[in-house]
Design brief:
7-stranded mixed beta sheet; globular
Length: about 375
């Protein structure tokens, strides 16, 4: 399936390439982060429109993909430090890391900070993912678009701080610095926080709602597009709302002022704690957060909701969860998806709902990824 999808995207790219475009990044063609920098941005949106409609045949269709800033949009980058290099893996290769000097899709402030960090860690032992030996696995940099605050997380294979000189040098430029332990065999850029050197969080602001973002918590990587989607969700949500896969409460808190009550369900304890803190920071009293997997919460037989909001990871919802949602027969389901294929499968499993409206957003320019926002109503 992945091979067929790749072939289809390649065919679309050739159809819309036209005279092409000049890539801004000198690493384009080697780094696996971007695939479309040699295609004019307008054509990228056409490619994604056709791709979405091909995947969603028989379910729904979109007329266009809402554009984003094509560069300098991404608020989080996970730079791998391996095999003596710091950067991103080559497309299709786990064994090869491209030594990235700068990244054109990163926010400017975080890109400048990355360049500084990169110059300071030249003598720090990286990690060998083939032998599973070494020290520094990832440098994760996050930047809040609307506040400009920047976070640096160093992910290490052992719980030791061998980065004191590096951290001392960057602390004036960073609003938060943490050391995170990821000691297993899995390739993870998150784990247990074993030392907080500065703050331990940054804050983002969406239309006056302040969000505290901690090192391991999820937050949308393109804030400019995310806030557009959140506004649409706020316009569509009514009454008592169930927000599944709620993260740090970003959607729940954003829509709280327009609905009666919101219950956010999230399986990550750190995210739930942060969501509750975010509610307190904003003085929001009609939002509650439950630490649970969505399917387990739904098995408890909750009822009385007028709107269900879904924002799952790329794997989508489980079949069991969708069946229980189908049986609840709420007035509307608002589904925010980063994967058209799992959106299609999840929607197709619903017998009691149909797609009333669907929009596509370019959350990740220069890549094949696209975000969907669908509203479903009872049949």
């Amino acid at each position: 399936m992945k091979k067929k999808r790749k072939q289809y995207i390649t065919q679309l790219a050739e159809r819309y390439r036209g005279e092409g475009a000049q890539p801004l990044c000198p690493h384009f063609g080697q780094c696996g982060g971007c695939l479309f920098q040699d295609i004019p941005y307008e054509a990228q949106c056409l490619i994604k429109r056709d791709m979405v409609n091909e995947i969603l045949q028989g379910v729904a269709a979109v007329d266009a993909v809402r554009p984003s800033a094509p560069y300098r949009y991404r608020s989080r980058m996970d730079m791998v430090t391996a095999f003596g290099k710091c950067g991103l893996r080559r497309g299709g290769s786990y064994r090869v890391v491209v030594d990235v000097e700068s990244c054109s899709i990163m926010r400017e402030k975080s890109d400048a900070l990355f360049r500084h960090v990169r110059s300071l860690i030249q003598e720090v032992e990286g990690y060998d993912y083939l032998r599973h030996q070494g020290y520094l696995r990832y440098v994760v940099i996050r930047e809040a678009t609307f506040t400009g605050q920047v976070m640096v997380n160093f992910v290490t294979a052992v719980q030791e701080n061998r980065l004191a000189p590096v951290i001392e040098a960057i602390c004036p430029e960073a609003d938060s610095v943490s050391l995170i332990h990821s000691g297993g065999m899995a390739d993870l850029s998150y784990g247990g926080i074993f030392e907080t050197i500065k703050a331990g969080h940054i804050e983002e602001s969406f239309d006056g709602i302040l969000y505290r973002i901690t090192p391991n918590s999820f937050f949308q990587s393109n804030a400019g597009i995310a806030i557009e989607m959140y506004r649409k969700i706020r316009d569509g949500a009514r009454g008592r709302v169930l927000d599944l896969c709620a993260g740090v409460g970003s959607i729940s808190l954003f829509i709280a002022g327009s609905v009666d009550r919101v219950t956010g369900v999230e399986m990550n304890p750190e995210a739930v704690e942060t969501a509750r803190m975010n509610a307190e920071i904003n003085g929001i009293t009609n939002a509650e957060f439950v630490c649970s997997e969505a399917r387990d919460f739904l098995r408890s037989g909750p009822g009385g909701y007028d709107t269900i909001v879904l924002d799952p990871p790329r794997t989508g919802m489980t079949r069991d969860a969708m069946e229980r949602i189908d049986a609840m027969k709420t007035e509307r389901i608002i589904y925010m998806s980063c994967n058209p294929a799992t959106f299609r499968d999840d929607v197709a499993s619903l017998r009691n709902y149909r797609v009333e409206s669907l929009e596509a957003y370019d959350m990740f320019p220069q890549t094949p990824h696209v975000e969907l926002l669908g509203t479903l109503k009872p049949v």
